[in-house]
C-alpha cells in the first residue's frame, strides 16, 4: 500500500478531475441502487402484491419509517391503479426504471470521462519524471544496470501501473458506495437477512487475501524477467554484426528462449491467480444468495412477515452487491500485482544521484586561468585507476595524455567533466573546485569528442547542433567544413537534412567521427576534450581533420587523449601515463631527448 500512496502523489495536479469523478461516481452508485429498488413497485403491480391503501399515510417518527415508506408506496400505487388502471401504473414504473438506468449510465460515462484525464496525466508525469531521472543519473548507474531493465521500467512497469493501480481509482468510490447504498436499502427491507451479508464479507475478504498473498512477489519476478529479455534483445540488435560474424546465433537464441520461457511460466502463475479472484468471489456470493433465498422464502411463505415483491427486490439488491464485490476483489489482486511494478518504478525515481550540484553552486561562464588536477585518486570499483595524480593545464595550452590502454587517460576526461567524482583530491578551474560549480555551466565550458562516435537517429544538421540548438545553417556548414565533413555531407541524398539512421548507421566510421568533431566545433567552448578524436579516420581524413583541430585549438585549452602519437607532436605538454600515474612529462622533443617510455612508444608506432 505504501507504493500505491507514493504513486498516487502524481495525481495531485489533476485533483479537479478526481473530484468530478467522485461526484459522478456517487450519482452512479445512487442511481444504480435506486434502479433496483424501483423494480419493487413493478413487481407489486405485476403480482398484485400491493396492499390497498386509500388513506394517505402519516409520518409517525423515524422508528416507523419503514412502515411509512411501504404504506406511501402502496398508497401511490393504489391511487394510480384506481384512476388509470394496472397497465398504466406498470408503464409509469417502467418509465421510472428506464430513466434511472439512463441516469446511472450517463453518470458512469461522465465518471470515466474525467478519470481518463487523471489516469493519462499521471502516466504522462511518471514517464516524464522517469526520463528526467534517467538523463540526470550518473554514468556509474548504467555501468551496473542492464539497459533492457531500465527500458522495461519505463514501458512495461508503467503500463502495469495503468492496468492495475490506476484502474483501482475508477472503483475506489463507485463500488464501495454501490455496496453501501444497497446495504442501506437491504437493512431497510430486512435487518435479519442483511446480517448474512455481513457474515459473508469478512469470510470472502479472508479467502481472497489468502489466494493473493504471494501475487506481488510473483509479479516482481515477471517484471524482472521482462527487463532481462529486453536487455538480451537490445544487446542482440546492437551487436548483430558480431553475432553473425562469430556464428553465435544459436547461443543468443538459447539465451533469449530460456528467458522467454521463464517469463511465460511466471506470467501464467500471476495471471491464473488473478483470474481466480472473479469466480471465487462470485461463488461465495452465490452461496450467500442461496442462503438468503432459503431464509427469505421462510419469511414470505411461512412467517409472512415480508411481501414477495419486497423479497425479490431484496434479492436483486443483494445480487447488485456481487458485481462491485467482484470488482473490488479483482482490484485487490491488481493492486498487489501493480505494487510490484510501482516498487520498480519508485526504485528508479528514488535512486540517489551522487553527481549533483552543491547547495550554493556557482554558474561559471568563462575560463580565465588554468585547470588544476590536485593529488586525485579514483577507482571505478575496487582497484585504483588513478593514484595521487597531479597535472596543471594553463589556459590556451594543449596537454596530451598518452600511454597504454588502461593507464587512466580517458578517466581524466570523465573526471574533468564530472561524469564521475574523484574519491580523493580535487579538480579546480580558475582556483574553484568543480564540485562548487553547477554541472550545467561546467559542461557548457567544454566540448567533447568521444572515442566512440555517438550519434542519434536524426538529420545531419540536428546531430551537429545538439550543443547549440539555435545555430544557423551557415554556422552548421562552417563547423562541418572545419571538421572536413562538408564534402561528404553535400553528397548525401538530402544533404544536411538527411536522416543518418540509428546510431548513424548509414555513415562510415570516419564520417561519423567527423560529425562528432563538427558538433564540438559548433559548440565553440573554451575547453576542448578530444578522446581519440581521430581514431576512426583514414590517413587522408586524419591529416585534414588534425590540421583543422590544431587551428581550432590555438585559441582554446585542450586535453587530447591519443594512441597515435603523430597527432600530438605539437602539444605544449605531453604527459606519459602508466597505471594511473604520470611517469614522464614535457614537450615532444624533450621526451625524445629523455629517451624513456615516450621514445619507446614512438619507436613502436614508427612503422605506421
Spatial arrangement of strands, main beta sheet:
6-7-8-3-9-10
Straight-line distance between termini: 66 Å
Mean residue pLDDT: 79
List segments where confidence is low: pLDDT < 50 over at least 5 consecutive residues.
none
Secondary structure category: alpha/beta
**Number of helical regions:** 24
Give the helix/strand layout.
Elements: H1 2-8, H2 15-37, H3 39-47, H4 65-84, H5 86-136, H6 139-144, H7 147-163, H8 165-171, H9 174-189, H10 191-211, H11 215-238, H12 240-245, H13 249-275, H14 277-302, H15 308-349, E1 370-379, E2 384-394, E3 398-403, H16 409-416, E4 424-429, E5 432-433, H17 439-444, E6 446-449, H18 460-464, H19 473-482, H20 486-490, H21 509-523, E7 527-531, H22 539-553, E8 557-561, E9 573-578, E10 581-586, H23 588-594, H24 597-605
Parallel strand pairs: 3-8, 3-9, 6-7, 7-8
Antiparallel strand pairs: 1-2, 1-4, 4-5, 9-10
What does this structure look like?
Strand 9 and strand 10 form a beta hairpin. The chain is of the alpha/beta class and 608 residues long. The strands form 2 sheets. The chain has a 6-stranded mixed sheet, with helices on both faces. A 4-stranded antiparallel sheet has the order 2-1-4-5, covered by helices on one side. It is built from 24 helices and 10 strands. The protein folds into 3 domains: 346 residues, Up-down Bundle (ABC transporter transmembrane region fold); 117 residues, 3-Layer(aba) Sandwich (Rossmann fold); 71 residues, Rossmann fold, CATH 3.40.50.300. Helix 7 packs across helix 11 and helix 9 runs antiparallel to helix 15. The chain is elongated and about 125 Å long. This is ABC-type multidrug transport system, ATPase and permease component. Pfam families: ABC_membrane, ABC_tran. GO terms for molecular function: ABC-type oligopeptide transporter activity; ATP binding; ATP hydrolysis activity. It is found in: Cell membrane. It is a multi-pass membrane protein.
Amino acid at each position: 500500500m505504501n507504493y500505491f500512496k507514493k504513486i498516487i502523489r502524481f495525481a495531485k495536479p489533476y485533483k479537479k478531475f478526481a473530484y468530478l469523478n467522485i461526484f459522478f461516481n456517487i450519482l452512479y452508485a445512487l442511481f444504480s441502487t435506486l434502479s433496483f429498488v424501483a423494480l419493487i413497485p413493478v413487481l407489486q403491480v405485476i403480482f398484485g402484491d400491493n396492499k390497498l391503501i386509500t388513506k394517505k399515510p402519516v409520518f409517525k417518527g423515524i422508528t416507523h419509517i419503514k412502515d411509512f415508506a411501504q404504506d406511501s408506496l402502496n398508497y401511490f400505487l393504489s391511487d394510480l391503479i384506481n384512476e388509470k388502471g394496472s397497465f398504466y401504473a406498470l408503464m409509469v414504473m417502467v418509465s421510472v426504471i428506464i430513466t434511472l438506468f439512463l441516469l446511472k449510465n450517463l453518470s458512469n460515462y461522465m465518471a470515466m470521462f474525467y478519470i481518463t484525464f487523471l489516469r493519462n496525466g499521471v502516466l504522462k508525469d511518471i514517464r516524464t519524471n522517469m526520463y528526467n531521472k534517467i538523463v540526470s543519473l550518473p554514468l556509474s548507474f548504467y555501468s551496473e544496470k542492464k539497459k533492457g531493465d531500465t527500458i522495461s521500467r519505463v514501458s512495461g512497469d508503467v503500463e502495469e501501473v495503468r492496468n492495475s493501480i490506476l484502474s483501482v481509482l475508477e472503483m475506489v468510490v463507485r463500488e464501495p458506495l454501490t455496496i453501501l447504498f444497497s446495504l442501506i436499502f437491504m437493512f431497510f427491507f430486512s435487518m435479519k437477512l442483511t446480517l448474512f451479508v455481513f457474515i459473508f464479507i469478512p469470510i470472502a475478504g479472508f479467502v481472497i487475501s489468502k489466494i493473493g498473498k504471494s501475487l506481488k512477489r510473483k509479479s516482481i519476478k515477471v517484471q524482472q524477467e521482462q527487463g532481462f529479455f529486453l536487455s538480451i534483445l537490445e544487446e542482440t540488435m546492437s551487436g548483430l554484426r558480431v553475432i553473425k560474424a562469430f556464428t553465435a546465433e544459436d547461443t543468443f537464441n538459447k539465451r533469449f528462449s530460456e528467458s522467454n520461457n521463464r517469463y511465460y511460466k511466471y506470467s501464467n502463475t500471476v495471471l491464473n491467480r488473478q483470474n481466480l479472484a472473479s469466480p471465487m468471489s462470485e461463488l461465495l456470493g452465490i452461496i450467500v444468495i442461496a442462503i438468503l433465498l432459503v431464509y427469505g422464502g421462510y419469511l414470505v411463505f411461512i412467517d409472512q412477515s415480508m411481501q414477495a415483491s419486497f423479497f425479490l427486490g431484496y434479492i436483486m439488491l443483494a445480487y447488485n452487491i456481487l458485481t462491485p464485490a467482484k470488482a473490488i476483489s479483482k482490484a485487490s489482486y491488481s493492486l498487489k500485482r501493480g505494487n510490484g511494478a510501482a516498487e520498480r518504478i519508485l526504485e528508479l525515481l528514488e535512486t540517489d544521484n551522487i553527481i549533483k550540484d552543491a547547495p550554493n553552486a556557482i554558474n561559471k561562464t568563462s575560463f580565465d586561468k588554468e585547470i588544476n588536477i590536485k593529488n586525485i585518486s579514483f577507482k571505478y570499483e575496487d582497484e585504483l585507476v588513478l593514484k595521487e595524480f597531479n597535472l596543471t593545464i594553463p589556459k590556451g595550452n594543449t596537454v596530451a595524455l598518452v600511454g597504454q590502454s588502461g593507464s587512466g587517460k580517458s578517466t581524466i576526461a570523465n573526471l574533468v567533466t564530472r561524469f564521475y567524482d574523484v574519491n580523493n583530491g580535487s579538480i579546480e578551474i580558475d582556483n574553484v573546485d568543480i564540485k562548487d560549480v553547477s554541472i550545467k555551466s561546467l559542461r557548457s565550458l567544454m566540448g567533447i569528442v568521444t572515442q566512440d562516435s555517438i550519434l542519434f537517429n536524426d538529420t545531419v544538421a540536428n546531430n551537429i547542433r545538439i550543443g547549440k540548438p539555435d545555430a544557423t545553417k551557415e554556422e552548421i556548414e562552417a563547423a562541418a567544413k572545419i571538421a572536413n565533413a562538408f564534402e561528404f555531407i553535400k553528397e548525401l541524398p538530402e544533404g544536411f537534412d538527411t536522416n543518418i539512421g540509428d546510431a548513424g548507421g548509414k555513415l562510415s566510421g570516419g564520417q561519423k567521427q567527423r560529425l562528432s568533431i563538427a558538433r564540438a566545433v559548433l559548440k565553440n567552448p573554451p575547453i576542448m576534450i578530444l578522446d581519440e578524436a581521430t581514431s576512426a579516420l583514414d590517413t587522408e581524413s586524419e591529416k585534414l581533420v588534425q590540421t583543422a583541430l590544431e587551428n581550432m585549438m590555438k585559441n582554446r585549452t585542450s586535453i587530447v587523449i591519443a594512441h597515435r602519437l603523430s597527432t600530438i607532436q605539437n602539444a605544449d605538454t605531453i604527459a606519459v601515463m602508466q597505471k594511473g600515474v604520470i611517469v614522464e612529462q614535457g614537450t615532444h622533443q624533450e621526451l625524445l631527448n629523455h629517451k624513456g617510455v615516450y621514445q619507446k612508444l614512438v619507436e613502436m608506432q614508427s612503422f605506421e
